[in-house]
Design a protein that fits this description.
- Helix content is about 40%, strand content about 20%.
- The protein has about 325 residues and is of the alpha/beta class.
- The strands form two sheets. Strands 3-2-1-4-5-6 form a six-stranded mixed sheet, with helices on both faces. A six-stranded mixed sheet has the order 8-10-9-7-11-12.
- It is globular, with a radius of gyration of 21 Å.
- The two termini are about 15 Å apart.
Amino acid sequence: MRLILIGFGVVGQGLARILRDKRDDLKQRYNFTSEIVAVITGSRGTLYRPDGLDIAQLLSAIEAGSLSHYPKHDGLIRDWDALRIIREGEADVIVEASPTNLETAQPALDYCVAALESGKHIVTANKGPIALAYHDLMVRAKAAGRQVLYEATVMAGTPALRLGVEALAGCTVSEVRGILNGTTNYILTQMENGMDYAEALAQAQQLGYAETDPAGDVEGWDAAAKVIILALTFFGKKLTLNDMDVRGITGITVADVREAQAAGERWKLMASVTADGGRVQPVRIPMSDPLAGVASATNAITFVTDLMGEVTLVGAGAGQTETGFALLADLLALHRG
């Protein structure tokens, strides 16, 4: 399987390391082999080599600052732009792991369209194209006889979408709800341990859970984008950020947390979606709810079904290796198909 990686930050490098370290195991267990034939970044260069790029040398080059440090090889092309590589590159799959844009989904959306037009599958960790252009991409994929897979967009490597679509096939899902943002869950957990909001946020930033500008997480927009994807996947319903009641955790105080504790409850930033719509808001949930025990940066999702009742899945919702694994899981699904 020949891969073009778009984005070579934390997630792209995570997938590359997995493909390098588990190459023999993947070959032996699944008869799966792969080559990264191109890497496209926004500011650190592009590389394309039809015969494949050396992963160790790719990682060394990016650690040195840019792909310009990748050594010379026969057939190596450095001057093609992203769309030319996608359209003309000899590859089977585009792996989209560039930063998410929830306003326009660009430039990732143009990359996805070009991939399908040139007969390539898409595996993405980028929420933008799925949240904003799901139906268009699926129509294009069907016409091209290709697939668009996006497990990594909701809970990183924890198989939330695969559980609902495959393992619970035959059930009618009436609601999906969960803790879909690890940053806010970490902050609320630390506030239960006595920190105030500002101190917990600063610690989350120091640990890499929160960005320098944490608004997307703490104001609920990251979780809202995931609600849009869940609505499309399980209810065929198209939502926008403006359609939803979206509230974050910035107004929660230590006093609020203590009041909930005294009542046997916990604050969680809950994302939920039904056939009628979706919302993201901080709520107090009883300790008897399985989601109440989900602490730190861990994520969880509950499917409410007719045949199985409530089914809850708990796992990592972020991380280099974890998100890289989600991309690998989708590549293996393509391979099996």
